[in-house]
Amino acid sequence: MSGPRVNSFFLGNSSGVNFSIILSPIDEETGKLQLANCSGSKRAGDWNLNVTPGMNTSKVTISLSRNLQLCLPNATDCCTTPLCVVETLQVLACRDSVILAHLLIQAEIYANSSFTGNVSENATIIPNQVFQPLGSCPCDLTAGACDVLCCCDPECTPDLKQLFNKSCFTGVFGGDVNPPFDQLCSSQSMEYTPDWFPFLCVQSSLNNTPFLGYFYHGSTSTPKVPSFKIPLQTSSGKLFTGYRQGDPIMTEENEYFTIPQQSMAGQCVGNAPVAYLQNFDVKCLTSLASYKEGLPHDVKINSGTGDFIQQNVIYRTIADMGKFITESESLRTAEVLCQNVTFAEHYTFFWKDKNIEQINVTVFLGSLCDGEILTQRFTVKFLNLKSTNATELFWNPGYQVGKPVRAANMNASDTFGSLNIWQPAGRGLCTSATYTPVLFGLDSFSGCTLEVDINEDCSLLRGNVTEKLNSLIQATHIGKRGNSSYSDLSDWVEIIRLDPFNSDTNVSTGSLKGICPDIPANLNIRIIFADVGAVQGIPQQEILAVQISYSTVIWQFQCGLICENSISFLPITASVQFIKVPAQPPIPMTRFQINYTEFDCNRNDVCWPQLFYPLTRFYTGEPYSQCLAKGLSLAFLVLLAAILSNPWFSKVLNSSLV
């Protein structure tokens, strides 16, 4: 634990159970903890133990009662070092001097470092780095005093500068933050100057320097800084031209349409925007004290064309609350406060092209009482009007991020297949784990634990683990696209399976009891995809290959503090990795590019292939038509000068005059 309070739960009937907490110092000679007994109390040092009994679950709270502030001068009852508390605790549950359960806690708590001083409201104005460097005098390190050898320091008087005027810092550190660069025509710092340097040098002022990070971009390269604000609706006309995949859905009030979703940290965020064409199914834990209502269901949704549609809401009552009420902290009595709350919300968006045509919402209500923990469920599903069945084919041919990967079992009469990963529940055992489909473009990692006996046969264990892993992949082929047809074999790619390594030697007998090598405990799914085109500007992604491999581990029976149980746990995992490759292999380098690197424009600032750079498509400083017109005019003048300077032209001119 790293905070002053931690909670745990004791599963089972707590009647007659005595809970105690003890400090467990580590023996310096052996490095082991001292043996615990049931003679402790609910207070040990600065630690307090509080138990809240329940029906089948008791909540155990361990809290620290000391001050965690850093010590000020002449202060007591505080932390002398930043690492304030480093202690080992044991929480015991005993009945009749017999230990029923024990919890080992390693506490490392740092002191509070909150700032309590005065905060200045003076703001420092930072200049625009495009035109002015941030630090005009980097060697000015001391405020209000002259830094020796720093001639650009404004605190240095002329008398002080005379002492070190000939030894000042040079370069950028000494204040020369805008030096001439090598490509400048007036720069003579290069020791070796090629003959063609005057043709390719840059004629520019020092105010336009690469040391500031920018060259002059021209009128066609004006950067557009995106705004984080939602555009305001200035009229009642059409606001949008349609949604694209991933765009947030807007309401009539020009705000985001939000539904609780899970964040990257795994916690639920109540005001998360709903993205267009992205399904999700989340579960959030809440109690009556922390329960909050979401957006009202009478909010109108922007269809994508500026029109607003009303939600079609159906309210239902939960019949079996046991699926949602996961645990109760105390017994329910007549005086317990209860409230009618939302248990689940299922949203179905019917869409066509870039617009939302209809929204159906099913809301399940139930009674939540004080002390109960509710598991709320929120689902969002987008269905195309062209296909409203459960096995919807995607509107566009390619895969969309967040959509399930299509699988097929071509060796069975029913070709429908599945590609799943685990969704653990409860204690995380494989026997109670459910499945969730693999979503395209989302790397994932899941697993569960398998109970293994100390006398387990290694061959049977390998077979059991392999069977558990293979249950995730009920398919022989994976669809190349989101609309792959089961009747067309060319729309599918065969799964490449790398079978796990199985040892023929039984290593679970004799002196190697409790140890099994080469257990295929990790399933690795690698999916290779690429962009193969675009539909209405949306990239279309296609799966090229799928490989399944196994990683083996050595299982060894693990013994805790007290080796009484003959059951150990083996964690098995499944990982999914999406690898993007280019649709076409890159063009290999020629022998000339490999041998003559000085002519490679990607490695040199100046190169021969860019001699006519202003006439190429890569130059964006001016419109291409203007560059081409100027280039042709220049070529005409050069050709005219060559003709006029030729001797035969003067002869022809003289003969014509005579």
UniProtKB/TrEMBL annotation:
GO terms for cellular component: MKS complex. Pfam families: DUF1619_N, TCTN_DUF1619. The keyword NADP does not apply. The keyword Glycoprotein applies. Residues 241-384, 398-581 form the Tectonic-1-3 domain. The lineage of its organism: Eukaryota, Metazoa, Chordata, Craniata, Vertebrata. Residues 112-221 form the Tectonic-1-3 N-terminal domain. Keywords: Cilium biogenesis/degradation, Glycoprotein, Signal. This is TECT2 protein. Belongs to the tectonic family.
